[in-house]
Amino acid sequence: MTYESHEHDVIIIGAGGAGLRAAIEAASQGLRVAVICKSLLGKAHTVMAEGGIAAAMESPF
After folding, report:
1. Angstrom distance (rounded) from CA 4 to CA 56
2. What pTM was estimated for this model as a whole?
3. Are 36 and 13 in contact (CB under 8 A)?
4. Which pLDDT score is estimated for 39?
5. For the segment 10-54, what is each residue's pLDDT rounded down to a tens digit?
6. Which candidate, 57, 60, 56, 13, places its Cα nearest to that of 36?
7. CA Rg value for the chain
8. Residue 13 φ/ψ, nearest 5 degrees
9. Where are the alpha helices (DSSP H) in the chain?
10. Residues contacting residue 11 through CB under 8 Å, at least 6 positions apart
């Protein structure tokens, strides 16, 4: 059995909007970043919530 070893400064769990934004910021600071997600990139809950967010922003209340 073969194992791979990886070294990171930051490990982010979740590839939704917040996780990816955190990864961008950490990488811009020169840190080595890993993002771990349970599905394909782009299939996060942030994408599924866009309709509800848009409705809330349009609400007059």
Report:
1. 45
2. 0.65
3. yes
4. 72
5. 999 988 888 888 999 999 999 999 998 887 665 666 666 665 555
6. 13
7. 16
8. -100, 115
9. 17-28, 45-48, 50-58
10. 33, 34, 36
